[in-house]
């Protein structure tokens, strides 16, 4: 297996392309040039830091350190879900709904995959566990964030319709059934689109990376199919669970709509 190592010059040439893009956005007055440069710097720093952490983790593989890394990843993902909401839940619920549903869905699917499908020894081998969990968490985070954002905005906009249904004797579940379905669809749609376009419109990242690293294409394809199925399951279970729990949180024990439990977030 031949791996072509990249030099600092190679990365510098790629960075010049981003600088050229930033200059073009400034010239066009798009207002995103500064954000693009900051995001680029963050990408370099964050990935270098993660690379060093993963190297140390691989060299000193212990279940405790792997679990700590996984919890840090979950904590950051939970914060990102909360930060992406235009209207988020007040207090711990704003963070907890996303974090708990990601823990239940992404972590459970990852453990099942490691113990029954991939089967490394030990099953928590960081070379497999951390990348797999990262892919699942990243996609599940996006699905949950989209679903929750769609739900809270729709409930806020349609609050009079919901209250009218409640006044007619509908339960909270019936009064919001259409909204929950649409929110769940929003969370699942990016994953469905990615699966539908895989191999035809685009080559998925994991498959491309393995091929570049010298893995036989057929073996890379098998891994990619496995990963996409796991992502679909994790994202689907996470989005459905988050939407249901969030919607339940919007009503009290007397089925009254409690929009006071939401507060405006920051984009």
Task: Compose a concise summary of this entry.
The protein is an all-alpha fold. It is built from 10 helices and 2 strands. Helix content is 75%, strand content 2%.
Describe the structure.
By secondary structure, the protein is an all-alpha fold. The chain contains ten helices and two strands, in the order αααβαααααααβ. The chain has helices at 8-27, 33-59, 63-83, 93-118, 126-157, 159-167, 172-175, 177-197, 205-212, 217-249, and strands at residues 87-89, 262-264. The protein has a two-stranded antiparallel ribbon with strand order 1-2. Helix 3 (63-83) packs parallel to helix 5 (126-157) and helix 8 runs antiparallel to helix 10 (217-249). The longest helix is centred in the C-terminal third of the chain and has 33 residues, at 217-249. It starts with 7 loop residues before the first helix and ends with a strand. The model has no long low-confidence stretch (mean pLDDT 89).
Number of helices: 10
Spatial order of strands in the largest sheet: 1-2
Rg for CA atoms: 21 Å
Rounded mean pLDDT is 89
In sequence order, what are the helices and strands, one letter per element? HHHEHHHHHHHE
Secondary structure tally: strands: 2
Percent of sequence in beta strands: under 5%
Query: In percent, how helical is the residue content?
Result: over 70%
Poorly predicted parts: none
How many angstroms separate the termini?
45 Å
Structure class: mainly alpha
Throw out a few tags for this protein.
267 residues; mainly alpha; two-stranded antiparallel sheet; 10 helices; 2 strands; 75% helix
